[in-house]
Amino acid sequence: MRRQVFSFVFFIVVCASLAKAKTPVVRTHSGAVSGVATSDGGVVSFKGIRFAAPPTGKLRWSPPGSVAPWKETLKADHFGASCIQGPNNEFLPWTKEFMYVTPVSEDCLFLNVWTPKVSAAARLPVLVYIHGGAFTSGSGDVPVYDGEALARTGMVIVTINYRLGALGFFAHPSLTAESQHHSSGNYGLLDQIAALRWVKENISGFGGDAARVTIAGQSAGAMSVADLLAAPLAKGLFSGAIADSGIGGRGVPMQSLAEAEKAGEAFASAKKATSIAQLRALPASEFAKPAGRFSPIVDGWVVPENAVTATEKKDGGNDVPVITGFQANDAALGGPRSNSAEEFRNRATKVYGPMADEFLKLYPAGSDEEAHKSGVDSGRDRLKAGMYLWASKHAETHKSPVYIYYFDRAVPWPAHPEFGAFHSGELPYTFGNLAIFDRPWEPVDRKIAKMMMTYWKDFATSGGPNDALVPTWDPVDPSKPILMRLGADSGPIPVADPSKLDFWRRYFESPQSKDAGPF
């Protein structure tokens, strides 16, 4: 009987110890949170941690407020709500792995943490990921962003939510009048900055080093990274930046505050609202579908001027090491595609104006087939050249290095080979999440994933993406038009043919390119 009692007590103690090991607790400035360990104990995740007050009611279209403290330990075992957005439908090439998971709500300012070591003594590099989605969709809970694999490399990974669409980027004269900074419209960016402040204040308890925080983002997330590089409010909140699809040329044209306010008045009129109070009284679902252009603007406070041009100036913006790059088929994402040689020539005349004849000599369109090839080639060269030219100017005016890349590995997809190395197709590799996709991955894909994660880990650790286990990647040298090719064959390659690079250099310096974007 004694032996049975002893065995039972021992069993209870062991179970309690295991339960405690599975639910590590971290104390944040707002309260304690408990996480969930993987079955092998290699990574602990903390999901759905609130980093700002719910931006609802009178706080709709206000800077993010402070979190109300909680007394009981928060079980951070599931994602918080995704921010208000449209239907979560797949549209090729973006399958379910690129879609958000949790239901949407206006109360959505949550972040998630993955860490390999819950110890303040660990002082691991931190990577904060900002999702893409054209500033109208996306979430920190998207499956391809799962941080477990990256965390296993020895980093703390954080994904965040931020307000989207009209709820995140609506400007209006009345809102500007409310603001002590005489600003409105960049609430989504302010959410990102609030999340970075939370990281600075709390990440040490999760094993992170607040002095080594790298921000990273893709697509709209990359544009956010560019904006944060230029934002005075973000100074000191990060030590490195990765902009994936990407920074180049003159950047995406940004509305001024006056232009955005005018658009905001039209939006309010369409909602039959004569005051901000009436707009705030509308249900959040009224703002789910995009209706107009909602994205970061030059408001004079959060973003003092166009982010890309600002970071080209001497000491402009936050001087930290930067990685930026593009995928081979990124250019296929935006702009009309020409279906014939005649359409291609007409479009060239419209886009390149007095430089059209020179453009067509470099990218001829004597036949429909030739025009198609020239469309692909010119799109890629435009992106690569614009990125290199921005990086060269930034390197000349800042102390920190810039690294640029061109990713050309296509996700193996027999059913849809036409997408190639599509926009977002690099994410399964950079997050090491090939296994969640039903694709016929090859050994080279796993090799590339390991390489990409190594580069990101090294960059977050030291500000340079170099390691003895991966190909050497040199920073941009304005005297050498070279970039890093990443894929099955990785290594330095020329940005473009010299005559083509010269064309793009003159084009991006011309008035004709004032509306040039990265895609």
For the termini, the CA-CA separation is 76 Å
Task: Give the CATH superfamily.
Answer: Alpha/Beta hydrolase fold, catalytic domain
**Helical residue percent?**
25-40%
Strand content: 5-15%
Instruction: Give the CATH architecture.
Output: 3-Layer(aba) Sandwich
The CATH class is identified as Alpha Beta
Shape: globular
| Radius of gyration using CA atoms only | 24 Å
Mean pLDDT: 89
- Determine the structural class based on helices, strands and strand pairing: alpha/beta
- CATH fold type: Rossmann fold
How would you portray this structure in words?
- The chain has a single domain, classed as Alpha/Beta hydrolase fold, catalytic domain (Rossmann fold).
- Helices cover 33% and strands 15% of the residues.
- It is built from 15 helices and 16 strands.
- The strands form three sheets. The protein has an eleven-stranded mixed β-sheet with strand order 3-4-8-10-9-11-12-13-14-15-16, with helices on both faces.
- The protein has 519 residues and is α/β, with parallel strands linked by helices.
Q: What are the defining features of this structure?
A:
Rossmann fold; globular; about 35% helix; about 525 residues; alpha/beta
Short description:
The protein contains 15 helices and 16 strands.
List the helices and strands and how they pair.
Elements: H1 2-22, E1 25-27, E2 32-34, E3 36-37, E4 44-50, E5 74-75, E6 82-83, E7 104-105, E8 110-115, E9 124-130, H2 148-151, E10 156-160, H3 165-169, H4 173-178, H5 187-202, E11 208-218, H6 220-230, E12 240-244, H7 257-270, H8 276-281, H9 307-310, E13 322-327, H10 341-352, H11 356-362, H12 368-397, E14 402-407, H13 427-430, H14 443-462, E15 482-486, E16 491-494, H15 498-508
Parallel strand pairs: 2-5, 6-7, 9-10, 9-11, 11-12, 12-13, 13-14, 14-15
Antiparallel strand pairs: 1-2, 3-4, 4-8, 8-10, 15-16
Helix pairs in contact: 10-11, 10-12, 12-15
